[in-house]
């Protein structure tokens, strides 16, 4: 267990008739970034809230550094930091006051409160704004402050629930750098996200969550390897021809079916051989389907998610009752 930071077995959680988690199993190695990838409604936030002792599971077991989240919640809370989808900071207080308040909740006192507050404000590039009210902060600054407060107790395990949702590209990059730094320092990070590039960039291990279960798990390279071969991307010039083009290309697909994006006119399919692109052009030409672009690509996490669930990771509306 010394190398295991989080251990989840048979975890289930229901909200009325909705089954948010359905016998989920998960092991997170200490000192790694573990990505939970899935759309809204998949069960990611429910899992984080259980690990943070904010929800009790309906069934199953979850442990953080060996402590049971139900039977030993105080021990778990001393070991974790938490940052959610929305920054949990008080807009009427200054940045410094927000962090100092959390430091006192960690039972830090006197000089330790001031010293550690100054340390995390500097680490997250908030020193210049430390004595301004948080209501004047940008979204990225609020998110950094929220994370700073969560790290004031130097927790060995950090739970980040979609921390970059709604942030601009620069703020996302800043938070990515912080996650990288935490990992290098030996902190275990459990990161939920519906952004495929984020999971690919940050996580050493990824679990694809779908309908409360783990649909697949592995390193980014291992997950992409499940697609096999390469991916052929074909964009048709006439959207009205999409259905005909998809039917024709389905005969070349090594997966179940090509994925059709009606908005962009793109068809993506896994193929066994790069020469398939020439065969695809011949077939489409015979059906008089005009092609705007054709490209061979390495499989992406998006292709993995489509193969596993039949839908894009960022394509589902907020239906998850866990967020209530």
Continuous helix count? 11
Structural class: alpha/beta
Q: Tell me the CATH topology of the largest domain.
A: Rossmann fold
Distance between the termini: 33 Å
CATH class of the largest domain: Alpha Beta
- If classified by CATH, what would the architecture of the largest domain be? 3-Layer(aba) Sandwich
- The strand count comes to 14
Q: Give the spatial strand order of the biggest sheet.
A: 6-7-8-3-9-10
Report the uncertain regions: 316-324
Series of H and E elements: EEEHEEHEHHHEHEHEEHEHEEHEH
Number of domains: 2
Mean pLDDT: 88
The share of residues in extended strands comes to 25-35%
How does the major sheet shape up? Answer: 6 strands, mixed
Looking at CATH, the homologous superfamily of the largest domain is P-loop containing nucleotide triphosphate hydrolases
Rg from Cα: 23 Å
